[in-house]
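for the recovery benchmark. tokens below, seq after
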């Protein structure tokens, strides 16, 4: 079982930055992939960024060049650095751990981009 605790959400003006953190209860090197997803009101949840245990990353087209996913294996924490935020980035952001057995989700953190 993997427990995930997210932090770092909040409110920011367009063009601003936020960094989200997702702390895992086990070594992230033992987790196949760690991903950030988001769900805006009235929309389906979508993948934002993912990092594999090998360190490979992938991003949604809508955030490429603005968001960066990274990890600190010593802290078993994955980060999502979000720059040049837009109002359309407003959503609940959730962390997911993909293992060989099942997926685990964090509780989610709200990100609001508004002037």
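predicted aa per position
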């Amino acid at each position: 079982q993997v427990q995930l605790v997210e932090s770092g959400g909040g409110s920011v003006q367009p063009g601003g930055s936020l960094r989200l953190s997702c702390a895992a209860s086990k070594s992230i090197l033992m987790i196949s992939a760690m991903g950030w997803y988001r769900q805006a009101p009235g929309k389906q949840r979508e993948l934002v960024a993912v990092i594999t245990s090998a360190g490979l990353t992938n991003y949604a087209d809508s955030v490429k060049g603005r968001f960066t996913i990274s990890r600190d294996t010593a802290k078993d924490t994955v980060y999502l650095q979000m720059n040049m935020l837009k109002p359309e980035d407003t959503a609940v952001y959730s962390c997911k751990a993909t293992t060989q057995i099942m997926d685990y989700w964090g509780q989610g953190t709200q990100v609001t981009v508004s002037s």
